[in-house]
Structures are given as structure tokens and as C-alpha cells.
Amino acid sequence: MSITILGAGNVGLALARSFIRKGETVVLGVPDPDKYRAAVSELGDAVRLLPTGEAIAASDVVILAVPHAAVAGIATGLADWQGRILVDATNPLAPGLSGLSVGTTTSAAEELARLATGARVVKAFNTTGAENMADPAYVGGMPVMPVCGDDADARQRVLALASLIGFDAIDCGPLSAARYLEPFAMLWIHLAIRQGHGRRFAFGILRRD
Ligand SMILES: NC(=O)c1ccc[n+]([C@@H]2O[C@H](COP(=O)([O-])OP(=O)(O)OC[C@H]3O[C@@H](n4cnc5c(N)ncnc54)[C@H](OP(=O)(O)O)[C@@H]3O)[C@@H](O)[C@H]2O)c1
């Protein structure tokens, strides 16, 4: 079955490229498909571009790669997500990158789970730059991809997707761990943008035998 990605911007197209490279078929959902027709046609036949609602209906895994402001409308736009896996790749950035708009005693992912009736929400693909999602290959090792969610089966499915495209996928347990994943994303953004490291780096985990 296809993987649906809502949003065809930096993250949406990057993940689409990586999944296609691994033989998956992808549905990209956007409010106005005509706007993205040319960009998406470059990805070839393994991608279909549909309006948001049709794209959601096409898959049992839906990745949110949209601005955080669009999330609530998408979540409540469906009366029942019927067990779909809803992967939250968003970051609730406060204006001027001053922090997280939801704070740290909840998370965007937990708020999403409250709104998306019947969805199995998983947080993933939010902690590194889109360039790393398009191409996770580094000479020094695999970039880490933390994944959390309350439904064990959904979490495993998303861990497998992150591994498939080349990440060191780490099971972080319950969805409440998104309270750590979202600030962790802010560290990547802070280093890339404020501290002048640029976007060509990724976090990884070192392990002793
Ligand atoms: N950029 C990164 O490196 C990065 C890394 C990790 C996580 N993130 C997070 O990932 C999310 C997306 O970031 P981005 O940089 O990819 O943003 P972006 O380039 O601005 O792309 C956002 C996409 O979402 C679409 N969209 C807006 N409302 C929608 C809706 N209701 N249904 C379907 N699609 C909708 C937009 O379409 P229109 O153009 O028609 O509005 C656009 O294609 C953000 O929450 C961001 O915080 C970004």
C-alpha cells in the first residue's frame, strides 16, 4: 500500500524521494495539486498528487509534513481516522524560532492525538533537516531518527519506514516522549541557523559493544 504524505514542501518532497528510492509508492496530498504538478512530475510514476482528502483516503499511513498551523484543520477534517497511522513530522515553532508554541508540558503530537479521532499518532521525521530526510547517508554513521507513539504496532511500522530509508531508528516509547523530540528538533534548528553550522549535519548515537 502507498504511503501518504501531506505537504509537498521541503519535508514532503524529501521523504517522497527517499521512499521512492526504496521502491515504495507515495501519494502526496496538498490543498491545490496544480501548484505542485511540475515539481512532483520530476519524481516519476511512483508518486500520485491528490487533494488532501483524497490523499488521506488512499493510505493507512499518513505523514503530516505541513506547517503546524495546518495540523488542527487536517486532524478534525476527518470524523474518524479509522485506525490510520498518523505520523507527525511537524514542529510547533514559536515566532522567530523563539521556542515551541505548545511549551514542554505537552507536545504538538499529543495535541494532535486529542484532535484526530481514531488515529494512531506517531511522532517521527521532525528532528533533522529535510536534506537529511532526502539523503540520510553519512560517511561517519547513520543519523538517528527518534520515533514515539502509544500504539506499539504503529510505532514499529514507522520505525521500519525510518530504517528503510537509512536512519538509525530509535524506539522512544510512548507519545508523551514527543515532549523531548520537539525540543530536540529545536537544537538541530538552533545549531543550523543560529550557531552557523549550516544544514549539512545530523545527530547520531555512539554505542559501546
Ligand atoms: N524544513 C525542514 O528541514 C523540517 C525538518 C523537520 C520538520 N519540519 C517540519 O515539517 C513541516 C513542514 O516543513 P516544510 O519545511 O516542508 O514546509 P513547507 O516547505 O512550507 O511545506 C509545507 C507544505 O504543506 C502544504 N500544506 C499546507 N496546508 C496543507 C493542508 N491542509 N493539507 C496538505 N498540505 C498542506 C503546503 O502547501 P501550500 O504550498 O499549497 O500551502 C506545502 O506543500 C513543518 O511543520 C516543519 O516544522 C521541517
Descriptive notes:
The chain has 209 residues and is of the alpha/beta class. It has one domain (3-194): Rossmann fold (3-Layer(aba) Sandwich). Helices cover 36% and strands 17% of the residues. It has eight helices and eight strands; from the N terminus they run E-H-E-H-E-H-E-H-E-H-E-H-E-H-E-H. The chain has helices at 10-21, 33-41, 52-57, 71-76, 108-115, 130-134, 152-164, 178-194, and strands at residues 3-6, 26-30, 47-51, 61-64, 85-88, 120-123, 144-149, 168-171. The chain has an eight-stranded mixed beta sheet, sandwiched between helices. The radius of gyration is 16 Å and the shape is globular. The model has no long low-confidence stretch (mean pLDDT 97). Bound molecules: NADP nicotinamide-adenine-dinucleotide phosphate.
> SSE order, as H and E?
EHEHEHEHEHEHEHEH
Figure out the total of helices: 8
Strand element count: 8
Low-confidence stretches: none
CATH-defined topology: Rossmann fold
State which percent range the strand residues make up: 15-25%
Mean pLDDT over the residues: 97
CATH domain class: Alpha Beta
What ligands are attached or bound here?
A: NADP nicotinamide-adenine-dinucleotide phosphate
